[in-house]
Amino acid sequence: MADWRAFDISESHFIASTLTPGLKLHLRARDGAAKAMPVLFVHGATFSSRLYDIPHSGVNWLQAAVEAGLSPYALDIRGYGRSKPESFPLEAEPYAQGDEAIADIGDAVDWITARHAGAPVAIVGWSWGSITTARYAIGACAGKVARLVLYAPIFAERNPSWLEMLADPADSSRLAAFKAWRRLDLASTRHRWDAQIPTGCESWRHETVLQALVAASLADDKDSDQTEPPSFRVPNGTFIDLWESFNAREPYDPALLTCPVMLVRGTQDSTSTRTDALALFDRLQAEKRRYVEIANGTHFINAEAQAKDLFGSSHQFIAEL
């Protein structure tokens, strides 16, 4: 495979945070048709916008969206990717919590809407991003959201394996031990991903995709070389929301979502489970709603062999009138 940098061709835009003076939020973009529907991709708890802009042929969702006639953007929530604040002390409380993420989404939507002459924006939210984008879409800015795709959605189902890592179900005090951020490297990324791929199904993920995703994530963090092996920093504020959801406490009322909504997950996903996703789907009251499940895929299906099925079903839903 060619060096990943040969595929790293997205534009970078930095927009001002309205919530935090001095903070610049990073937004990736690939040129689509001038009048194409704008789509904002919002990441989850672990990877930044790199999840959608993996510098590898065949699994770059932004490029696939352009080829589908859309105008795609991907946001780095504060603390992720290139949206690092000047001061990012480890000792602080978990950084980039839900309300802050929603404010960042709002800033990105407003910037994109202005760039597209006031057009509403379709939004794709992955994992934790399915919570933050849904909460944004039921707020005061709901009219700015044309369609909502919740990819690998998380809602409100008890998840013992996650709770064992996060905190006691009745006591959130242990969450403070996570501090502002954590570090991830190639080995930890591989370990988490491998845990979802069944034995004998190693072909679901190409090694070069894993390498490109991690290498690009390391390059996006100027302090990645401060450890050996190199590692990139990831905020821990997401754990507050996930602790609530994995304790079966609802983060929002799905009945309040009025825009068309699609839920899509991989069958092997143990974080976004079928029972949780279907419970969420059954609570939706939007006139247009859809549930899609794609076989032979994990929580990271966008970076696996079935990526094109995920892209195609999502783009079709976004483009429908």
UniProtKB/TrEMBL annotation:
Gene3D superfamilies noted in UniProt: alpha/beta hydrolase (3.40.50.1820)
InterPro entries: AB_hydrolase_1 (IPR000073), AB_hydrolase_fold (IPR029058), Carboxylesterase_BioH (IPR050228)
SUPFAM superfamilies: alpha/beta-Hydrolases
Highest taxon, organism lineage: Bacteria
Span of the signal peptide: none
A family per Pfam: Abhydrolase_6
Keywords: Hydrolase
Boundaries of every AB hydrolase-1 domain copy: 39-304
Gene Ontology MF term list: hydrolase activity
Xref: PANTHER family: HYDROLASE ALPHA/BETA FOLD FAMILY (PTHR43194), PEROXISOMAL MEMBRANE PROTEIN LPX1 (PTHR43194:SF2)
Name recorded for this polypeptide: Alpha/beta hydrolase
Organism listed in the record: Roseovarius gahaiensis
